[in-house]
Amino acid sequence: MQTKHTALLLVDVQQAFDHPSWGARNNPQAEQNIASLLGHWRARQMPVIHIRHFSVHAASTLHPSHLGVAYKTEAMPITGEKEFTKSVNSALIGTGLEDYLHQQKIDRLVIVGISTDHCVSTTTRMAGNLGFTTYLVSDACATFDRRRADGKLFLAEDIHQIHLCSLDGEFCTVRTTAEILSAE
After folding, report:
1. Among 58, 68, 104, 111, which residue is least crowded by beta carbons within 10 Å?
2. Residue 15 class from Cβ within 10 Å (0-12 exposed, 13-18 middle, 19+ buried)?
3. For 22-51, what is each residue's pLDDT tens digit?
4. CA proximity to 158, closest of 145, 148, 140, 149
5. Is there a contact between 21 and 61 (Cβ–Cβ < 8 Å)?
6. CATH superfamily label, 6-182
7. CB of 126 within 8 A of CB of 111?
8. Which residues form the Isochorismatase-like domain (predicted)?
9. Cα dist. 40→33, 47, 135, 182, 183 in Å?
């Protein structure tokens, strides 16, 4: 798996998700696992791609006028790593990412990021549908508690696990950080 044709795709690992307005979150170790994967990719000089969300809504913590659009410390790009910005959930819509992957002959993606049920899931689904061999790292992504319109609360961990279950085997292969790091 670990070749120049396998990219680590970091989706929306941004400071905005530390804002209390997002609510309770699962996987508090996600950023640490992302940092471990990023170090592994860098040490092997494999492709790393950063995706950053720029909301079109001025009040959003992810709007370019807010500090929250900055990358989290654990996921700061370095020189030579490709960056794309998006304003929709999928990193493959309107970004040039798909063309870049084909140009670089990258056919395998290892996806991490925030949030599991929004941009991570949408990007994973599209990548699988576009024919990329796709891995989603279960403990290197996270989401938040959500309330339905009627007020019913759904816990972040339940949402996270349901999305992983729905994606695995259909759009991607779900693996842990340890499994990805030990795969050769």
Report:
1. 58
2. middle
3. 999 999 999 999 999 999 999 999 999 999
4. 145
5. yes
6. Isochorismatase-like (3.40.50.850)
7. no
8. 6-156
9. 11, 11, 16, 10, 12
Q: What HEC string does the chain produce?
A: CCCCCEEEEEECCEHHHHCHHHCCECCCCHHHHHHHHHHHHHHCCCCEEEEEECCCCCCCCCCCCCHHHCECHHHCCCCCCEEEEECCCCCCCCCCHHHHHHHCCCCEEEEEEECHHHHHHHHHHHHHHCCCEEEEEEEEEECECEECCCCCEECHHHHHHHHHHHHECCCEEEECHHHHHHCC
Structure tokens at 19: 């804002």
Could you check whether the bond before residue 115 is cis, i.e. omega within 30 degrees of 0? Answer: yes
Q: For tokens 């970004």, what's the residue?
A: 95
Q: Report whether 51 contacts 112 (CB < 8 A).
A: no
Residues 45 and 89 sit within 8 Å (Cβ to Cβ): no
Do residues 65 and 76 touch, judged by C-beta distance below 8 A?
no
